[in-house]
Specification:
alpha+beta, TIM Barrel, 2 domains, six-stranded antiparallel β-sheet, four-stranded parallel β-sheet, 7 helices, 15 strands, elongated
Length: 339
């Protein structure tokens, strides 16, 4: 079974404090709340992911996030606590800090760092009152972590978004490191140049941070060997109906594994190709996801009697004899052509 997973990269550990409201808001890079009247250190939070968590009246909520990373904490301790919160809802969201009472903050502090074994990041913030931003800006987050504080009142909401790129709004999508955490929540960029221009594809890959996928029109493992040697792709997408069949697809998967690349076969050539790809994915250690059409595709959905069930992003591998499907005689008769 296969699942896609993305995580935000700014781990914040976990001391929030609130005082009574006062004058115009200012920003500090030290902990200015010596005797807080309320603290949310997440120590009472259960070890699971959720969209919101409140403690002593201070609430943290993820907004507009995606997938499993749409969460305010993970079950691991970083910095000053047993929980860590991520001010990106799956790389495309942000975090809201409020008081359950609805009152304005007088001062608020939190400890933030760039995450476990991650380079420094940029933290964009907005202080808002009655839904309107009254102050915004960016702050640098170091690997070791540091205190961030807002004081002076006149704000009842703090909005945060973190990224390794330049961030100037809550919806910015800057590029980050290769992989799903590139700041745009992009799984891959498929064949950005013509497939025959492998050196050109290598240049594209070297100049960006979004994973490059290629290979649906390539035949035999030797073409994929060239992609690997040239470092032109992060993800191989062989089509079992075109690359040379199941055996050749498995050899291509072996090349991917040897070069620490990933495998996501191209599976649009009909049901036999799709079922073959399922078994290739199940048998190859380099595979990580399955390409599956949920739209109208009679050559996949109607050509066989067997129905593929997708549940919570997972597909079960067929266990019937052969590739695990039975051709639909009714479908074949309906589309038979006389000679």
């Amino acid at each position: 079974m296969f699942r896609a997973l993305t995580l935000s990269l700014f781990a914040t550990a976990l001391c929030l404090a609130a005082l009574g409201s006062a004058r115009a808001a200012t920003v500090h890079l030290v902990d200015i709340v010596a005797d807080p009247v309320a603290v949310n250190d997440f120590e009472l939070a259960p070890e699971f992911r959720a969209l919101t968590w409140a403690q002593q009246g201070i609430r943290v909520t993820q907004v507009d996030g995606s997938g499993d990373a749409d969460a305010i904490w993970l079950g691991s301790g970083l910095g000053l606590g047993d929980r860590s919160w991520y001010p990106n809802g799956g790389d495309d969201g942000w975090t809201r800090l409020t008081l359950d009472s609805g009152e304005a903050f007088g001062a608020l502090s939190f400890f933030g760092g760039s995450g476990w074994n991650l380079p420094p990041q940029t933290l964009y913030f907005e202080l808002a009152f009655d839904g309107l931003a009254v102050l915004s800006g960016t702050l640098a987050a170091s690997f070791g972590g540091s205190w961030f504080s807002f004081a002076g009142g006149d704000f009842d909401e703090v909005r945060l978004r973190a990224s390794r790129g330049d961030v100037s709004s809550l919806t910015d999508c800057p590029l980050g490191p290769p992989g799903p955490n590139n700041g745009c929540n992009l799984a891959w960029f498929e064949e950005p140049v013509i497939a025959d221009d492998k050196p050109g594809m290598a240049e594209v890959r070297a100049s960006g941070n979004v994973p490059i996928s290629a290979g649906e029109s390539e035949a035999t493992r030797y073409a994929f060997r060239d992609l690997a040697v040239l470092k032109a792709a992060d993800i191989f997408q062989p089509d079992p109906a075109f690359c040379g069949g199941i055996s050749e697809a498995m050899k291509i998967g072996t090349i991917a594994s040897a070069f620490n690349l990933r495998l996501a076969p191209h599976l649009w050539a009909g049901a036999p190709c799709f079922f073959a790809g399922l078994h290739v994915c199940a048998a190859s250690p380099a595979s990580f996801t399955i390409e599956y059409s949920l739209g109208a595709n009679p050559m996949i959905h109607d050509l066989v009697e067997d129905k593929i069930e997708v549940s919570d992003g997972l597909i079960a591998i067929p266990e019937k004899p052969g590739l695990g499907f039975t051709m639909s005689e009714k479908f074949l008769e309906a589309h038979a052509q006389g000679v």
